[in-house]
Design brief:
binds zinc ion; OB fold (Dihydrolipoamide Acetyltransferase, E2P); five-stranded mixed barrel; alpha+beta; five-stranded mixed β-barrel; 416 residues; 8 helices; globular
Length: 416
């Protein structure tokens, strides 16, 4: 019992600023009245709730409530999500102080911008990718402060581009700039130059954004120390800024196109300019002939567009399939051109087949027969998706018989 009280007092003092003896006295009084320990703890916390203790980011653990901290917004992105059939905006990014960098989600618009230093009161934390993630809700108070704070300086960890996952910070990575462009953004009334493009090494490619002019140009091979990875448009993105070091290297990087194991793509939550191979394990039900709105190109149902009402739909052919290479699986979307290439029949062919059979389902059946269990090589980029990493194909080809055999053997071995 005594040990329990000591522990409970420690836990209370982690959350509120108060005198240890006072807290212990209060806690014992509640317990003497027969209040269960957990309830007594909450009651004492409530009593001192007005003065929540400010924590450093490194001291925040998973599943805490009533968190109070001061931190700087390193990155922030707006995202629309559907919660119980209503669309709402959420904001995701990274917060940092001199002790750590943590991911956060804001469930309402606090008007936060990159570079803001804020005092947060009454946030909570959950677990994400093995680390705490701060959650700012309706009940969280956010106050902008007019001073700057230092961000943690630690020895960056070296990564290959293929291993970069959203949420990582303190990243060291080297690569060749395949493209770069400059644009201007306005932050808090101030115009800033931002540089974005594509960086590649021998393992993969990644989009990047540089918030400072490092004098970079296409073809440069560089080493970046102190970068961050966030998720943007369904793929990881590398961010570096005035807190990062960038060094030009006198070396060449040869970019080869070779297939990436699918588990790597799944772990990273997507990627750009991917080359992948696998066996088709499912043809999704929305594959086949679909009709699109002539005005907005949305898929329509029963001649009705959710945006434009009754319209004359335009026929289109598309395939969404599940591709598995034995290490992981992704969805792949094939547009009309690539579908026609793989099926060796045109949309017009399928429209007449469907009209004759008076059933569009016949097209699905044929796609299923032709592609199921076949091995494919796909090139493309991942797109925003909620459930499974989804690749929008730019090129697709059936693998040759021997390659196909090899792929089937890999799958068999992995399935035992
Ligand atoms: Zn429309």
């Amino acid at each position: 019992m005594e040990i329990d009280i000591e522990k409970a007092v420690d836990e209370i003092l982690e959350r509120v600023e108060a005198d240890r003896e006072e807290v212990e006295k209060d806690l014992r009084r509640f317990l003497d009245y027969g209040v269960p320990l957990e309830q007594a703890k909450e009651a004492v916390i409530n009593k001192y709730g007005g003065i929540l203790k400010e924590k450093k980011l490194k001291d925040i653990k998973v599943n805490e409530r009533g968190i109070c901290t001061v931190a700087k917004v390193i990155t922030i992105d707006e995202r629309e999500v559907e919660v119980r059939n209503t669309k709402r905006k959420i904001f995701r990014g990274l917060l940092g102080d001199e002790t750590a960098v943590l991911p956060f989600t804001a469930w309402k618009d606090f008007g936060l911008q990159r570079g803001d230093v804020i005092r947060i009161k009454n946030a909570s934390s959950s677990e994400w990718e093995g680390q705490p993630r701060l959650s700012l809700s309706e009940w969280t108070e956010v106050e902008k402060l007019d001073y700057d704070i230092d961000l943690i300086k630690r020895t960056p960890k070296k990564y290959n581009i293929i291993d970069l996952k959203p949420g990582l910070s303190g990243v060291e990575v080297r690569g060749k700039i395949l493209s770069i462009e400059e644009r201007e953004v306005s932050i808090g009334g101030e115009t800033k130059k931002v540089f974005s493009g594509i960086l590649a090494d021998e393992t993969a490619k990644i989009r990047f954004t540089a918030w400072k002019d490092f004098g970079l140009k296409e073809g440069d091979v560089i080493k970046i120390k102190g970068g961050y990875i966030r998720r943007w448009r369904g793929a990881p993105q590398l961010i570096f800024d005035e807190n990062s070091e960038v060094e030009k290297l006198d070396e060449e990087i040869v970019i080869e196109e070779k297939p990436i194991p699918l588990y790597k793509v799944v772990e990273a939550g997507g990627g750009i300019d991917l080359c992948i191979e696998g066996v088709v394990l499912d043809i999704r039900k929305d594959s086949g002939i679909i009709f699109r709105c002539p005005k907005c190109n949305r898929r329509i149902k029963n001649g009705v567009c959710e945006e434009d009402g009754n319209v004359d739909g335009v026929a289109d052919l598309r395939i969404r399939l599940l591709l598995d290479d034995g290490t992981g699986a992704v969805d792949v979307i094939l547009n009309r051109e690539l579908s026609e290439k793989l099926l060796k029949k045109s949309l017009e062919d399928y429209l007449s087949i469907a009209k004759e059979a008076m059933d569009y389902g016949i097209v699905y059946d044929e796609i299923f027969d032709r592609l199921m269990a076949k091995a494919l090589r796909i090139k493309g980029d991942s797109i925003q998706s909620d459930l499974i990493v989804t690749i929008f194909a730019r090129d697709a080809e059936l693998l040759q018989i021997d390659e196909q055999k090899e792929m089937e053997e890999i799958l068999m071995q992995l399935e035992g």
